Amino acid sequence: MNEYPTDSNIIEYMLTLLNISDHADGDPDFLSTIGNLKAASSVQPLPAMLEEHSDHVPNGIIRFMNQMPGGFFIYHADDKEQIIYVNQALLRIFQCETAEEFRRLTGNSFKGMVHPEDLSSVEESIRKQIAQSKYDLDYVEYRIIRRDGEIRWIEDYGHFVHSQSIGDIFYVFISDATEKRQRQLTEQRAMIKHAAAESELKLRTLIESYDEERRLIYQEHLRRLEVIEGLSINYESILYVDLDSDTILPYRLSVRTEQVFQDPNRSRGLRWYTQDYVSTWVHPEDRQLVANATDPDYIRAKLSENKTYYINYRIISGGETQYLQLRVVNVGNNARISQIVIGYRRVDDEILYEMKQHKALQEALDQAKTANNTKDTFLSNMSHDMRTPLNAIFGYTALAKKYLDDASMVDSYLDKINVAGRQLLDMIEQILEISWMESKDIHLKESPCSLVDIMNEVRMTIQPQAEDKKITLHVDLSGLQQSDVYSDHEKLTQILLNLAGNAIKYTETNGRIDLIAARKEQLPNDHAVYQFTVQDTGIGISQDFLQHIFEPFQRERNTTFSGIYGTGLGLTIVKNVVETMNGTISADSTPGQGSTFTVTLTLRQQSSPSAPDSNIDHTHALLVGRKILLVDDNEINLEIETELLQELGFRIETATDGLQAIEKLQASAPGEYAFILMDIQMPVMDGRKAAETIRRLEDPVLSHIPIIALSANAFESDKRLSTESGMNAHLTKPIDVPILLETIARVVPADS
């Protein structure tokens, strides 16, 4: 059995097999003919040699090549392109019975196979494809002339190979593609016929109306009409212009352009039309603009940069100013700009909208500038107003240290330090509060409350300040037929305290302040309209400033001129809170006589009076001597808070983070701690995480211990997060003792 090499180049292998005839034993004729395959191929076609010497060539190779369904041949890749081998299928394609007939027909070369008219393009295509990729088959189509003279189309797939024994060769697979080409031509003719039928259906009327001599002219004219028709959808006047001939022809006319042309079928001169139109219709201030935009030199210059351009201008029609847009479009040759279309359309709505938008943007810009100026003024005032109480705190602290032996003077200085500190705290709280409102972090908590209690609470809070200034404070509740309502106790108290606090500030010594609450109107479904009035005999507000009284950072006179500390945010906060409660606030004032602020709210009434709060003093008395777990990571806070709580009679144990607090609670005896005061932001474990952990303790006594948050975090969202973590209440620093005692009475069970 023959051993076949595993060379990946099958053509090289086939040629090697064919070349074994050099070693055929003892046939001198064969040896002289095939001794060198390259020389032999030029003398005798390889199929003839294979047939003549088939005993010396493997029969499988001959059968394989001859039984291929398509033509296959090999030829030298040189200038002569001599054919080395052709199979039987290729002979059949050329209608040749023998290889000798094929050789005579083609001259035994690839050049002789290809139709002379196709040879040059075929060879060029093959060269380009080989240069692009040495791995892919090259593909060409060309014609051949068969032995019977018929011309056939061939599909050719070839590949270039370098052979060690033969040299550079092409091996090629071909097939007769004549029928395929005919099908393609038939399909193309059918498509052309179908397209022609459709075109004939659309254009028959036009073609019958015009002779062949006018056909091309009409098509060009039709193209221009399509452009003009596209513009005419929104344009009231359409004009065709030839700049070279200085002619203008109307296609669509408005009332204005119709008067200029009179006869729409007659062309006019562009310059004559422009001069007449501009002088008759265009607003005097825009005439030069329109004249320049329609000047031929200007038109050519603009259209050389863009296909179109436009201007907006005004006209006068019936004494009314209207806005129009003139658009110029190049519809001719870009190399020589001459043929153009001019369109006119009304743009009143667009221009007015742009003017309105511009005005709105300008107003917004002015408002932004005003706001920035206001904030700059505010920051300047705040720098002064905050430094003043800080200076008092540091100054009186230094004086108190100097007179430590004089208790009365130290006590006086400490009182003044306290006043300055509260002024500073009030400023900070107002700034924070306006920040909450800007972030929409404000929520209402409706609960049963008594308007009488709220009014008395306000009176008790501001009474000491009123007494210091010898101001008469009067509360009128005679109009409250029903005082038990549902409302946000904290927010309503805040509104009234801010208004009353302002009244104290701006009312001079021996003045008078009236706090009035009354039900004004009974509504269905247990609702009623309530009105709260704060009236003073203070310095008053000018009418000009009264319009800006509720705007943020606004003060009629700063601290330097008025001597009164403030941020200019109090009334802004009041207005925002009132509106959050779906109420209204108004102000009336006369300089030198006083001011009146009126808040109107719609509140739901209680069907029965609310129960009184727990007795704060009683609860405090019961808890005196009990131990409190105070949790805070700040040593100064711990020292101050411990001192204040010990003065209230509590025993204090401290922890510096949430984890330490949990450990101490778990190590305590049941009931050892009355409640926990918990800071929020701490290292190791924060207060909320600690509260969540405590609520999951297995011992119910420990897991239900009251926890009160005591934190500098004062946003509504902070209070909500504290409640969600399991805390019973949320208080803000610094400690306000009355509020702390009230909270303790509310959250600590009386029997604890």
Compile the SSE list and pairings.
Layout: H1 10-18, H2 28-34, H3 37-43, H4 46-52, H5 59-66, E1 71-76, E2 83-86, H6 88-93, H7 99-106, H8 110-113, H9 116-132, E3 138-145, E4 151-163, E5 167-176, H10 178-209, H11 215-231, E6 237-242, E7 247-252, H12 255-261, H13 270-281, H14 287-293, H15 296-303, E8 308-317, E9 320-330, E10 339-346, H16 348-402, H17 407-438, E11 447-450, H18 451-468, E12 472-479, E13 484-487, H19 489-506, E14 512-523, E15 527-536, H20 543-546, H21 559-562, H22 570-580, E16 584-590, E17 594-605, H23 616-623, E18 627-631, H24 635-647, E19 651-655, H25 658-667, E20 673-678, H26 687-695, H27 700-703, E21 707-711, H28 716-724, E22 729-732, H29 737-747
Describe the overall structure.
A hairpin with a 5-residue loop joins strand 3 (138-145) and strand 4 (151-163). The chain has 29 helices and 22 strands. Helix 16 (348-402) packs antiparallel against helix 17 (407-438), helix 18 (451-468) packs parallel to helix 19 and helix 19 runs antiparallel to helix 22 (570-580). The termini are far apart. With 752 residues, the chain is an alpha+beta fold. Strands 11, 12, 13, 14, 15, 16 and 17 form a 7-stranded mixed sheet that branches. It is elongated and about 140 Å long.
Short synopsis of the structure:
With 752 residues, this protein is α+β, with helices and mostly antiparallel strands.
Strand percentage: 15-25%
Which spans have pLDDT < 50 for at least 5 consecutive residues?
1-8, 19-51, 53-57, 558-563
In total, how many beta strands? Answer: 22
Give the structural class: alpha+beta
- Overall pLDDT level: 80
Helix content: 40-55%
Rounded to the nearest angstrom, the radius of gyration is 53 Å
**How far apart lie the N and C ends?**
110 Å
Envelope shape: elongated
What is the tally of helical segments? 29
Largest sheet: 7 strands, mixed
